[in-house]
Amino acid sequence: MAIHSTVTVFSILVLTVLSSLHFSSAAVTKLWVVYNEKAQTFQIVNSSVSDFVAVASFDNTINATGWAKLDVSTQAGENGKYSDSQQIYAAGFVEGHITRSLMSMHWTNTLAGFCSEPVSWQCKQLQAYLENNFKWMQQQITDNVPGGSPYWYHVQLYLLQMAGLQDGYSNYPGVLNTNIDVMGVYLWQVGGDLEDLNQLFPSEKKPLNRKDPLFTGTGHCSALIRLLPDFSDLYVAQDTWNDLPSMLRILKRYNFELHLAEGLDNLIAGNTMTFSSYPGSLSSGDDFYAISSGLVTQETTIGNSNSDLLVYIKYTSVFEGIRTMVANRLAASGREWAQIVSQYNSGTYNNQWMVIDYHRFRPYSKKPVPGLFYLLEQIPGTIEYQDLTQLLYNNLYFGSYNIAYFPDIFNKSGGPEAVAQYGDWFTYDKNPRARIFQRDVGKVRDLTSMTKLMRYNNFQKDPLSRCNCTPPYSAENAIACRDDLNPINGTYAFGSLGHRPHIATDMKLTNIQLFRSLSFLAISSPTYDDLPPFQWSTSDYNYLSHVGHPDLWKFPVITFNGTNPMA
Q1: Are residues 116 and 41 in the same domain?
Q2: What are the boundaries of the signal sequence (predicted)?
């Protein structure tokens, strides 16, 4: 199918759904998916049944809390009559149906108009890349799943879940398939990868200049792991940095009765996970996950500014979100997780991943259990990981702020060149967020003080937020950025320090007690502790699409209950 046809069909469907929507919040909606064996189709019903394949509960409380909540579970049924493929397709099917209103609004806010007519050379190249990638994965599934490969089996399940999501959203008949619209639902899953794919297919058909300020210092997220001084608790937290239109959010729990590989009785280690996410996305994207295996996985983006590495971005690979979810489901330890994610590196959405194994944490013990903390970093052509448990116990914290920790990754990805041109802002230990964590992490003694640090931004008064700018500070130089507050007429060394619609949209935080039930604290709002809250009606960015958004974003911290998500 030609790219303009693909985009137009999906855009028309989005507009059709939007035209039928009412934007008021509703009570909890619950739907079940049943399987008609005679017709071999899945059907959605709104009354309770015991012989279901999947069930979903959904509560759109964005206007009250900044979050919607979604809980999806599957079951194999009596004598295991529902296969993993049927379960995972049904899970996607019911999610696509029950969240279709938010999916339409989020598409309108973030992807509408992407690759619209007249179709550019870049978009044609992107579609061809995605189609080739999808065909290659399908061939790998055909070649490897019958032989018992857990990896490719779970890649296959992810694609089936995506097909279910597409069919549930579109109200298509629920029939097992993997007929994916690569410029529709697949595009949703690879949002983080697009930044690197855009470099691979530059719109002006010229190589990326590694010193181009447009590709310099695009911060994505802050994260912190904090071990309390008495070793009584371990906090894990992450802030998402994203653009203002992205703020329609869903907290999700997936509880799937899936097996390790085809024909095996062993269930996966990560059968249940809770995570922050977005409408239409089957992974977190932030990323932040609490998993029944005992793992918490989170990341910040380190990116790549070395154009020489673009040759390693090939369609014979698996995109980051799929690899992450496969690892989340299969891995029983941090080392296993790193080994799985390291396979078929896409070279896109290049992140620094932190993997905490709470099963290895011993409260009040000063002696660390090896394997408690793994760090993994990815750039095109290279993945490096290491057990940094002892480092965490020595320093009592590990901060993450979009700069590579491993020297080889830092050097290969263009770090030294960035430092030579722009200075300490691009160093691992002297950039503003590193220094703020160094200065303030000792104040973290409980969940309240941890939350305060993760939401911290006092850029007009904090000397660590200063820069060679006019005025001499930037709201980028904080743990939770608020670049919308930088003066529009200011002058800045590079674009990321200036006025733009890029902010810390949230915070997620867990500890040993919360994690036992896969629960975490969450707040969805640009930070407002020391700054005015964000409000669309008073912002100079109110021209950006924000369908379904509240006007004022000043929501409190909530607890996402991993046992009862609708609570």
Answers
A1: yes
A2: 1-26
pLDDT classification of 218: cutoffs 50, 70, 90 = low
60, 168: one domain: yes
The tokens for 155 are 């890649």
Asked if 418 and 329 sit in the same domain, the reply is yes
Let me know whether 146 and 269 are in one domain: no
Residues 348 and 472 in one domain: yes
Distances (CA, A) of 417 to 117, 205, 225, 347: 38, 24, 29, 20
User: Residues 310, 208: contact at Cβ < 8 Å?
Assistant: yes
Q: Which two tokens stand for residue 354?
A: 């932190």
In this predicted model, which residue has the larger pLDDT, 18 or 339?
339
Instruction: Write out the residue range of the structural domain in which residue 134 sits.
Output: 3-193
Q: In sequence order, what DSSP letters do the residues of 131-184 get, joined into one string?
A: HHHHHHHHHHHHHHGGGT-HHHHHHHHHHHHHHHHHHHHHT--B-------TTT
Q: Which residues contact 284 (CB under 8 A, 6 or more apart)?
A: 275, 276, 277, 324
pTM: 0.95
**What is the enclosing helix (H) or strand (E) of 374?**
strand 373-379
Structural domain contains residue 152: yes
- Number of helical H runs and strand E runs in the chain: 16, 21
pLDDT at 103 over 60: yes
Q: pLDDT by residue (tens digit) across 344-392?
A: 999 999 999 999 999 999 999 999 999 999 999 999 999 999 999 999 9
Residues 169 and 273 grouped into a single domain:
no
| Residue 198 belongs to a domain | no
pLDDT at site 3: 33
Q: What CATH number did the domain enclosing 280 receive?
A: 3.60.60.20
Q: Are residues 455 and 344 in the same domain?
A: yes
Are 324 and 466 in the same domain? yes
Q: Beta strands 67-74 and 250-255: pairing type?
A: parallel
Q: How far apart are CA 233 and CA 358, in angstroms?
A: 10
Q: State the residue for tokens 């137009």.
A: 8
Q: What is the mean pLDDT of residues 487-508?
A: 96
Q: Phi/psi of residue 455, each to 5°?
A: -100, 10
In tens, the pLDDT along 5-31 reads 344 345 556 655 555 554 444 589 999
Buried b (16+ CB within 10 A) or exposed e, 260-299: bbbeeeeebbbbbbbbbbbbbbbbbbbbbbbbbbbbbbbb
Residue 242: predicted pLDDT = 97
| End residue of a domain, out of 193, 222, 256 | 193
Kindly state the tokens that stand for 336.
């296993």
Q: Is residue 566 part of a domain?
A: no
Q: Among the three residues 166, 193, 220, which one is the final residue of a domain in this structure?
A: 193
In contact, 360 and 380? CB cutoff 8 Å: no
**Dihedral angle over CA of 238, 546, 534, 351, nearest 10:** 20
Lowest-confidence region among 54-58, 196-200, 422-426: 196-200
Domain count across the chain: 2
